[in-house]
Amino acid sequence: MSEVREAAPWLTKKGRETRARILQTAADLILKHGIAGTQINDVRRAAGVSGSQMTHYFRDKETLITEVIAWQAQTVIDNHTQEGLGDLDSFEALDLWARLLMERQEEYQYVGGCQFGSLAGQLVEASPEIRPDLADGFVRLLELFRKGMRTMRERGELRSEAEPEHLANVLVSAMEGGLLLTQTLRRPESLSDALKGAIAYVKTFAADQRPPS
Q: What pLDDT digit, counting tens, does each position of 171-199 carry?
């Protein structure tokens, strides 16, 4: 489980762990029951904390929901900036990214998918007031790939006509769609094929390849 970087820096290690446990518990309950069906006391009981602990970390339900979204978004960012992936600015890094995603899904037996994506899918229309927070998480993820594609183009590894924003959209969309199908079908081919197809498309813009028709 990843922890939000620099979140609540005034807390002790134990306090940060408790806060993270509350956030994970709240995220799980929201995915199961929605925002309306998840109350502060439900989270408190499920996380095994007292009422005073809840109010110490989160003053109200609105604050908790906002922090859950930020926490899940940061978890996704952390997973995409782990050791070995660098800045997602090479074909080798993209291949490793796909392999790590597949290994993680296999480890969890294709259960869970992308928790941030699932959270966004459930909340974006049901709770339009928090759509900007959800969008910000995806904007940050897309920017990781845009930056990597820009770097590859600047180094001459991608041809000048390669559009970093377009390629970032292709990669992230393939991941999110593939994760959802693999989660639903409980089999790996959907995610595997989506990732392979997206990366193969990026490689058609390699400097030593012919332009795609």
A: 999 999 999 999 999 999 999 999 999 99
Return the percentage of the chain with pLDDT > 70, whole number: 93
The total of structural domains in the chain comes to 2
Distance (Å, whole) CA 30 – CA 123? 9
Residue for token digits 């989270």? 43
Q: Is 67 within the bounds of a domain?
A: no
Structural contact between residues 178 and 190, judged by C-beta atoms closer than 8 angstroms:
yes
- Read off the CATH number of the domain in which 26 is found: 1.10.10.60
| 108 and 168 fall within a common domain | yes
Each residue's pLDDT tens digit, 25-69: 998 888 788 788 889 999 999 999 999 989 989 988 889 998 999
Q: Bridge partners of 158?
A: 206
Residue 3 lies in a domain: no
CA atoms of 137 and 72, how far apart (whole Å):
8
The model carries a pTM of: 0.84
Residues 55 and 86 placed together within one structural domain of the fold: no
| Domain limits for position 27 | 13-59
Residue 145: count other Cβ atoms within 10 Å of its Cβ: 25
- The Cα 8–Cα 130 span in angstroms is 21
Long-range contacts from 186-190, C-beta under 8 angstroms, 24+ separation: 186/109, 186/110, 186/111, 187/110, 188/102, 188/105, 188/106, 188/110
